[in-house]
């Protein structure tokens, strides 16, 4: 199979869809890998490393897109990139098509592109193995982001996250006790903040409380959310509905209840956001102020830890990528239910599966 590995073109998407080590394993399995010149530079991988692994370096995006039977990206392709794809080929990556513009979905359908959203791969136990390590990275990055935004020179309230003797720490509220919420809790507790976590699952709260007995846990319902918002210095949204847009958990009216210059970090923005006032931002302009509250809504937070995030993504995704390459797209879809769930478009059709969950869970 011809496999294309392009350079990411979205602003501040610094990861790459395959490592040199992954390329070497694909080549050893008799596949041809075309790597665009400079594709791995931001993640610390040189063209020479890819060549040493057996890749063929190409110098135009049209060539890497046009040659690929399977294109390995990280971010969702732009409309221009979709039009570079050869009709009938497949693209795999963190596509998040549930929050994509309709014109992009239409272009995928028109060109009969098979779109594989790797973040949607779901095992029978509901674990999402490719999403998980990236959620861990995002969760661990949240406390350092919050600490910076709370500073006066960043527009925040001038609060030290962990406080000192005689001065209380920041109040952090986390919506969701899943992978992202758990790792955010770990970081915030380690930095000395006072943490409240809300979730709809008592078992998730129990597991988190057993690990971090200093935190406050609450069942997520409108009354408890309003209560927590009234004292939050930092609100973290980490809500996920698999294969669907994130639900709005916090309305504009509830945002108005928060204290001025508090912080909202909406980690669900990849799937549309769980706060009504959220809208996507970028790493160069990561925040905006709405209703007097500072919002941080960067979709690709792990990207700025490009090397770690690339390794984490490829480590999790590679078994599925290798299966797609070795067996072909059609056979893999038929034989691997976990990956079949991740097929969003196929041969000009939107794919809907009865297995798609309807209940909200945490990311």
| Beta-strand content bin | 15-25%
CATH class of the largest domain: Alpha Beta
- Which ranges are low-confidence, i.e. pLDDT below 50, for 5 or more consecutive residues? 353-363
Number of helices: 13
Structural class: alpha/beta
Please state the average pLDDT score.
Answer: 93
Looking at CATH, which topology of the largest domain would you report? Rossmann fold
- CA-based gyration radius: 21 Å
What is the helical fraction, as a range of percent?
25-40%
Give, in order, the helices and strands: EHEHEHEHEHEHEHEHEHEEHEEEHHHEEE
Under the CATH scheme, which architecture of the largest domain would be assigned? 3-Layer(aba) Sandwich
Describe the fold and architecture.
With 363 residues, the chain is an alpha/beta fold. It folds into 2 domains: 178 residues, NAD(P)-binding Rossmann-like Domain (Rossmann fold, 3-Layer(aba) Sandwich), CATH 3.40.50.720; 172 residues, NAD(P)-binding Rossmann-like Domain (Rossmann fold). 34% of the residues lie in helices and 19% in strands. The protein has an 8-stranded mixed β-sheet, sandwiched between helices. Helix 6 packs parallel to helix 7, helix 6 packs antiparallel against helix 11 and helix 11 crosses helix 12. The longest helix is centred in the C-terminal third of the chain and has 22 residues. The chain is elongated and about 65 Å long. 50% of the residues are buried.
């Amino acid at each position: 199979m011809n496999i294309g590995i392009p350079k990411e073109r979205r602003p501040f998407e610094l990861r790459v869809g395959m490592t040199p080590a992954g390329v070497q394993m694909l080549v050893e399995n008799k596949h041809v890998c075309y790597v665009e010149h400079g594709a791995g530079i931001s993640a610390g991988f040189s063209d020479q490393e890819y060549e040493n692994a057996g890749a063929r370096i190409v110098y135009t995006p049209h060539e890497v897109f046009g040659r690929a039977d399977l294109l390995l990206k990280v971010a969702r392709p732009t409309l221009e990139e979709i039009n570079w794809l050869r009709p009938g080929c497949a693209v795999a990556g963190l596509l998040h098509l549930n929050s994509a513009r309709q014109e992009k979905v239409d272009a995928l359908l028109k060109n009969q592109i098979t779109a594989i959203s790797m973040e949607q791969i779901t095992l029978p136990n509901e674990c999402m193995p490719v999403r998980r390590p990236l959620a861990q990275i995002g969760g661990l990055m949240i406390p350092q982001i919050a600490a910076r935004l709370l500073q006066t020179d960043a527009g925040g309230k001038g609060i030290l996250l962990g406080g000192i003797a005689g001065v209380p720490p920041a109040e952090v509220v986390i919506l969701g006790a899943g992978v992202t919420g758990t790792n955010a809790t770990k970081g915030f507790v380690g930095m000395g903040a006072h943490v409240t976590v809300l979730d709809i699952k008592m078992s998730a709260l129990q597991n988190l409380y057993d690990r971090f007995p200093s935190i406050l846990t609450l069942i997520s319902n409108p009354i408890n959310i309003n209560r927590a918002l009234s004292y939050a210095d930092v609100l973290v949204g980490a809500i996920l509905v698999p294969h669907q847009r994130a639900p709005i958990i916090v309305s504009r009216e509830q945002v108005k209840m928060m204290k001025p210059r508090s912080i909202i970090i909406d980690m669900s923005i990849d799937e549309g956001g769980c706060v009504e006032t959220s809208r996507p931002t970028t790493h160069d302009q990561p925040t905006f102020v709405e209703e007097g509250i500072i919002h941080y809504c960067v979709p690709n937070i792990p990207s700025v830890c490009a090397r770690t995030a690339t390794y984490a993504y490829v480590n999790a995704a590679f078994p599925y990528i290798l299966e797609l390459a070795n067996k072909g797209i059609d056979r893999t879809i038929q034989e691997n239910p976990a990956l079949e769930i991740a097929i969003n478009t196929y041969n000009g059709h939107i794919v809907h599966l009865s297995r798609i969950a309807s209940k909200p869970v945490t990311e």
